[in-house]
Design a protein that fits this description.
The protein has 12 helices and 2 strands. It is mostly helical and 296 residues long. Among the domains are: 93 residues, Four Helix Bundle (Hemerythrin (Met), subunit A), CATH 1.20.120.1810; 51 residues, Arc Repressor Mutant, subunit A (Orthogonal Bundle), CATH 1.10.10; 61 residues, Orthogonal Bundle (Arc Repressor Mutant, subunit A). It has a two-stranded antiparallel ribbon with strand order 1-2.
């Protein structure tokens, strides 16, 4: 703005010194805006808000109106979110917990009966918390363990916290078993099952490895060698092979070593396919009997 130019919201007033004095201009108010503000309803108090929610709940229970359900879900969604945030901070994302709590809210809304006189928040709270606990029981565990064992793990964790506070040291297995009135073996089983909550990737470096010598755990896990079983089978066949004649040995070799069909074997040895089938059956029976006598 150029020097000496009056502000658009101010009008010049000439004083006796002929210097302009900028007086504030009175702002006009649109009559339509004033009328619209006068028609707004006064803000609702807490009692009116609760009355409106009760009316919505009764309306939805009677009509199952989709708009009423959407409005109720939007109103009670902060309540469900606050319950979900009790379990935040762990391995489960907060967004997933809020989604589970929202499903519990909808489930509670479908089963709520206003005629019983119970507030909806008091009815929906246990339902939402139950959905969250079920989610942790069924989804958060990497490995599925029996429900009774999961409850025992929770009891052992609570007993550890209680005894640690009372004894000012870590409790022993015997002390935990005495407090929970279970066997020490059950306490140890709960300790071992706790590992199922946190699994380790086989591609992760081995714990305690020297710097620069990190190797995945897969390199330290062996596998069954099928050659050992073949050696045992071969020794059993060699020890029992003296009970077979030359024809039976040849038929067995063609069938199991060269993997030929009975018709092809029949052309090789000059017998019919039916006769080859009888030779195979007889030879296998001899080997089975000889192996049984050898083990006895």
């Amino acid at each position: 703005m150029a020097r000496g130019t009056p502000h658009p919201g101010l009008r010049p007033v000439w004083t006796q010194s002929r210097m302009p004095y900028l007086a504030p201009r009175r702002m006009s108010v649109d009559p339509t805006q004033r009328k619209r503000a006068d028609n707004l309803p006064p803000p609702r108090g807490p009692e009116e808000g609760l009355a409106a929610e009760d009316e919505l709940l009764r309306n939805y229970a009677q009509t199952r109106d989709e708009a009423a359900r959407e409005e109720l879900v939007n109103r009670f969604l902060p309540f469900a979110r606050s319950l979900a945030m009790r379990y935040s901070g762990g391995v489960e994302p907060s967004e997933d917990l809020v989604q589970v709590a929202s499903l519990g809210l909808v489930s509670a809304l479908e089963r709520f009966d206003p005629e019983r006189g119970v507030p909806f928040a008091a009815f929906a709270g246990p339902t939402i918390l139950g959905e969250l606990r079920r989610h942790f029981r069924d989804r958060v565990w990497t490995l599925r363990v029996p429900r009774g064992l999961q409850e025992r793990i929770r009891d052992v964790d609570g007993a550890i916290a209680k005894l640690s506070h009372e004894l000012e040291r870590s409790p022993t297995v015997a002390e935990l078993a005495e407090l929970l009135e279970i066997n020490e073996a059950d306490v140890l089983e709960a300790f071992e099952a706790t590992v199922a909550r946190r699994t380790v990737s086989l591609d992760a470096p081995s714990a305690g490895a020297e710097p620069g010598e990190e190797a995945p755990m897969t390199e330290r896990i062996g596998s069954e060698d099928p050659g050992f079983e073949l050696v045992e089978d071969r020794e059993a066949i060699d020890a029992s092979a003296d009970v077979l004649d030359d024809t039976e040995r040849e038929v067995l070799r063609l069938r199991f070593a060269e993997d030929l069909t009975q018709s092809t074997i029949a052309e090789r040895v000059g017998y019919s396919q039916m006769h080859v089938s009888r030779i195979l059956r007889r030879a296998l029976g001899k080997l089975r009997d000889a192996a049984g006598e050898r083990q006895a």
